[in-house]
Design goal:
- The protein is of the alpha/beta class.
- It has one domain (25-154): Rossmann fold.
- Helix content is 50%, strand content 24%.
- It contains six helices and six strands, in the order αββααββαααββ.
- The chain has a four-stranded mixed sheet with strand order 4-3-2-6, with helices on both faces. Strands 1-5 form a two-stranded parallel sheet.
- A hairpin with a 5-residue loop joins β3 (74-81) and β4.
- The longest helix is centred in the first third of the chain and has 22 residues, at 2-23.
- It starts with a helix and ends with a strand.
- Residues 1-23 have low confidence and may be disordered.
Length: 155
């Protein structure tokens, strides 16, 4: 009886998981934006980086380009990196498919405080960015199914 119940629970789990996978939203791109905030990035450079990313996601041409993809949406996360053990998610995975979501993502970039200013380890930043692609909702919960993945590492 116990074995039958275990098999039944396992079968139900598979059915539920496959239903979630089929219901997953398609995105045209999984994008990791990785910004250097090491000591070499003074406050002016830090603000320039942040405001540049924010301006991009507020730009009507960028929003139109996002909408022009086959699915008309992307998933993006913004991280900052510095030393070998100094990386942080600033804005976690966000679905962008309209002006409102793009502007909200932009605002969250600008509003977040600077976490640290450590030594520079670009390999640590890249490794952390790659880990974000691996933990993207496509891998974690099948929320997003990207047709492309991109990582932008700003020195």
């Amino acid at each position: 009886m116990r074995a039958l119940r275990t098999i039944g629970i396992a079968a139900l789990t598979v059915v539920i998981a496959s239903s979630f996978a089929r219901a997953a939203e398609r995105v045209d791109l999984l994008l990791v934006l990785a910004a250097d905030i090491s000591r070499s990035m003074d406050e002016a450079k830090f603000q320039l980086q942040r405001s540049g990313y924010a301006a991009a996601f507020s730009n009507p041409q960028v929003i139109e380009a996002i909408r022009a993809g086959p699915s008309g949406r992307i998933a993006v996360t913004f991280i900052e990196w510095s030393g070998p053990l100094s990386q942080q998610i600033v804005v976690d995975w966000t679905l962008i498919n309209n002006d409102r979501m793009a502007h909200e993502f932009s605002d969250r970039i600008v509003e977040a405080p600077r976490a640290f200013a450590d030594s520079t380890s670009i390999s640590g930043g890249i490794a952390f960015a790659m880990a974000q692609l691996e933990r993207a909702p496509i891998a974690a919960s099948s929320t997003f199914r990207g047709t492309a993945t991109t990582m932008v590492v700003a020195p």
